[in-house]
Queue: 3 jobs
Job 1
Amino acid sequence: MKTTISLLLFALVASTAFSQAKVSLKIIQNGAAVNPVNGEYELKKAPFAVEFTFDVNAYDGVFVNADFTDAVYKTADKAALPDLQDIPYKIVKEENFNTNKQIAVAADNWSFWYYNKSTNEYRFDRDIKTVDANTVTATRTIEQVYFPVKEKTLKVAELTEPLYLFFLVTNPYNQRGVVRELYRQKMKLNFK
C-alpha cells in the first residue's frame, strides 16, 4: 500500500513538473507590460515589444503565427494544432537580431524566434538579458508588420484591424523527431 501511494505521489509530482513549461510571454509598450482585458490587449498605434523569458537548456525558441484573421488563433485551448508536425517546415526567413524591427504576418506560415548563444545567432533584438544560469529574457521589438508573400511592410501606426498572435513552444530542435507541443499562448492585439 505504501509503495502504491508513493508511486502515485511521484507520478503526480513528475507530471506537474514536466507539464509546466518554464516560459513567460508579455506584451510591452512604452516600457510597461500591457495586461489583457478579457483576453485582449489594447495597444496604442505605436511600436511595442514581445518579451519572451525561457529556460535556454529546455527550449530553443518559440514558433509564432501572426495574422489579421483568427484562423489559428481560434484553435481551442485543448485542441490539437492542425499540421503540428509540419510547422517547423513552414518557417518564414527573418533577419538575425531583428534588425528590421518587424513581425511577419502570414496565415499559412510561422516565424521561429530562437536564441543560440553558442553561435551568436538569434531572431530577437540584440540585447538578451540573463535572468539566472539557465534563463534568459529575449525581446522582439515590433515597429512594423511584414507581409512575406507581397514583400510589403506596414507601420504599426497604420494598423486598423486586430493582430492575432499564436505562440507555440515545442521540444528542442535537436530532440524533435516527433514535434510535441509544450506550451501555447494566444494574444489578440487591438490598436487604437
Job 2
Amino acid sequence: MSKLTTLIQDLVEPVLTPLGYELIDLQYGREGGRYILRLFIDRPEGIGLDDCEKASRAVGEILDREDPIPNSYYLEVSSPGLERPLKKEDDFKRFTGRRVKLRTFTPIDGQRHFQGRLRGYQEGAVTLELPEGQQLAIPLEQVATARLVFDPADDEEA
C-alpha cells in the first residue's frame, strides 16, 4: 500500500466504522485518463445503493476537508461483491467453511494458486482443505491475494 492510500485509509475508516461499514478494499489510480478512488465497503447484512450513497457523502466530506489527494479524482463506493477479497485475519476467521481462491507470493509444493475450502486461521496461518481432501497451512504473510468463490451450496448451508 502506498503512503497516499494508507493516508486515505486512515482518514476514511474512522468515518465509515460508526456508520456500520467495514472498509474491505481501497484502490486509487489512473484509469482511462482520469484518477479514480474506489472504496469497497461491506456489513453483515450486505450493501445496497443507499449504503453506497451514504458512505460516499461521509467520505467525500472528510476528503474535501483534509484534501490528501493532489489531483482531481472520481470517488466510487461499492460492495465488494459475492467473491469479496479476504485481507485481514478476521476475514479468514469469519469466512471459515467457505470456498476460497488463494495465490501465494512464492510457490508452496511447486504451486502458487490454490482453491479449496477455508478451514480456519490460527497462529498466523490460513488452513485450506484442498479438493483432494488434504489440508494445507499457508502463512498469512505468504498470501498475495485471497477471495471468496461464489458457491450456491454455501448459502444453502447458512
Job 3
Amino acid sequence: MTWLLNPLALAERMNDTTQDLLVLDCRFDLTDPTLGVNQWSAGHIPGAAYADLDQDLSAPVLQGVTGRHPLPSQEAWQQTLRRWGITPDTHIVVYDGANSMFAARAWWMLRWAGLSRVQVLDGGLAAWQAADLPLNEQVNVRQPSELMVSCPSDWLVTADELVQDAAQYQLFDARALPRFSGETEPLDHKAGHIPGAVCADFAQNLQADGRFRSASELRARFAELGLAAPASASSPTCYTEAPTTVCYCGSGVTACHNILAMQLADLPQPLLYAGSWSEWINDDARPIATGS
C-alpha cells in the first residue's frame, strides 16, 4: 500500500461497503487548540472522526520536563485506537487542512502502533474540496475494538542518547529557517537548534497545491541537504558507516512530515526525536546553536 491517497480514490473507496474504512480528520491550530474541532464540527469528509492533536495524539504536558506534544503511552494510545474501533484490518485515511503536518503525525503514530493500512490524503481537505467532493456533519458510529498494539521503542531516540553520542546521529530539523536559526521563536522559550542539525523545512516537501512532491524530487531534496543514506531502501548496507538519521522539529509533529517524505522517496525510515526542540530546551545543560 502506498502512503498517499488522492481524493477521488478515497471517494471511490468510501462507496465500497465491503471495506472497513476509517477517515480521521486531524485539523488543528497550534495557536488556537479549539479551532480544529470547531472546523470539524462545521463540516468534514463524510463519516470522518476527529483526531485531536492535544487530546488524542499527545500525552499531557509535564511543564519543564516534556515537550509540547509528548507521545502518549502505549496503553493510552491503545485505548484511543480501541475507542475509534480500529482493528488490524481497518483501512485508515488521515487528513488535515492542507499541508498534512498533523495528518503526518497521525500516520506515524498509527504505524508505530503496528497498523499497516494507513494512508494520508494527499493535499488534505483543500484537495478534497478542489475535487468538488462533499462535506457534511455525519459521523460514523463504530463499535469499540479490542485491538492490541506494540509500539517499538527503537523507532525513537531520546535527548540523552543525542547528547551522549552526537556523532552517531544526523539530525534534520523540520522547522522553517527563521526558527532554526534563532532569528525568531513564536512557540518556545528559547530559540535556536540542536548543534549539528540541518534545517529541513517540512513545507519544502510539498508542491504549491499542498500535495507531496514526487519521489525523485524528494530524494533529490534530501540528498541536497546532505542525507547520508543508502542508494535505496532495499540496499541498506551501501553506507555501513553512515550516521543514524533523526528527525525532529518543535514538538514532534512536523518531524513526522519529513519521515513520511523520506519514506515516499524510498529512503530508510529515520528515528523520531519525539520531544524535539521544546523538550531539548528544558535542560540548560543541553547545547544550543544559532545561525543558518
